[in-house]
From TrEMBL:
PANTHER family: CELL DIVISION CONTROL PROTEIN 14 (PTHR34065:SF1). The keyword Cell division applies. This is Cell division control 14, SIN component. Pfam families: CDC14. Keywords: Cell cycle, Cell division. It comes from the Eukaryota. One of its GO terms (biological process) is cell division.
Length: 292
């Protein structure tokens, strides 16, 4: 796995869009192998596996792995170990700095990078702490600018939610970077598509939820979006993670928490009728399966 990641990172560090695409697909294939149980598949040689750009899901009957099976999965354990020592790469930042092509190839690369990033952050919650730094939070907010296509805006919102899950310090960075202004401005823009506006509304519901710090034992809950955790997966996260930013007992992280009323007051600076959003949130409880 380490050799595959090294090869993938060499590709995404390239200025050649074809190599970047290949590197992103190699990472996507690795994440798919971790998350999916393969049925019958064609055998391949070690050389073919090493250079494969992605798993050909069309040739494999794959189903999502059971949550409890992850802890016993050597691939998941190796991924978690490597990600604990992961040096953050600047692929997404460099893609944003690339000149947009008329055929939309750069947009496709950004979408692929965002998809991989969301999967990585769900599988390895400690990696979310990188977005407590303004430089990385700013990249996501840049993707919400009106000049980006609706697909990128929607994908960026999904990644943004993932970065804020059970990580109050990231939410404070989001607020400091005028994230609420960015989100509400896009919501009120007449050029914003209805689909993006719906996702923006869902994000605001999510933002207004009560906050709680995450502990290493509750990491699988957040990563998989489930109310019940598996003791086996808990063990995998506890043994595999000692990354700074995952609060061991809630002490440091609780200093970053704001109440729902405080967040309601902050959002009301940019949006009218926030009280109705809060009331609807309390009545419908749309995110009861996610620990925020």
């Amino acid at each position: 796995m380490e050799a595959l990641l090294s090869l993938a990172f060499d590709n995404i560090a390239s200025k050649d869009t074809q190599k970047i695409r290949k590197g992103l697909r190699q990472i996507e294939g690795m994440l798919a192998q971790i998350c999916l149980s393969s049925g019958k598949s064609k055998p391949s040689t070690p050389q073919h596996r090493r250079n494969a750009s992605a798993i050909n899901l069309g040739e494999q009957q794959s189903t999502p792995k059971k949550l409890g099976a992850l802890a016993e999965d050597p691939a998941f354990r190796e991924f978690f170990r490597l990600q604990d020592g992961f040096e953050w790469n600047d692929c997404l930042e460099r893609l944003l700095g690339m000149t947009s092509s008329k055929d939309g190839q750069n947009d496709l690369l950004i979408l692929s990078a965002l998809s991989n990033l969301q999967g990585l952050l769900l599988l390895h919650p400690p990696s979310r702490t990188i977005f407590g730094r303004e430089i990385y939070m700013n990249i996501l907010l840049d993707l919400l600018d009106p000049y980006n296509c609706p697909a990128i805006q929607s994908s960026a919102l999904l990644v943004l939610v993932t970065t804020l899950l059970a990580t109050p310090q990231n939410t404070r960075t989001f607020e400091t970077m005028d994230g609420l202004l960015t989100v509400t401005t896009l919501f009120k823009d007449e050029e914003t598509t209805q689909n993006v506006k719906l996702k923006l509304l869902e994000f605001l519901y999510f933002y207004l939820m009560p906050e709680a710090p995450i502990s290493s034992a509750s990491a699988p809950n957040t990563a998989m979006g489930l109310q019940r955790s598996s003791s086996k997966v808990v063990g995998a996260f506890e043994r595999g993670s000692n990354t700074v930013g995952v609060d061991d007992g809630g002490g440091a992280a609780r200093n970053h928490i704001r109440t729902q009323e405080e967040k309601q007051y902050m959002l009301a600076k940019y949006l009218n009728n926030v009280e109705a959003l809060v009331q609807d949130l309390q009545e419908t409880a749309p995110f009861t399966s996610v620990a925020y």
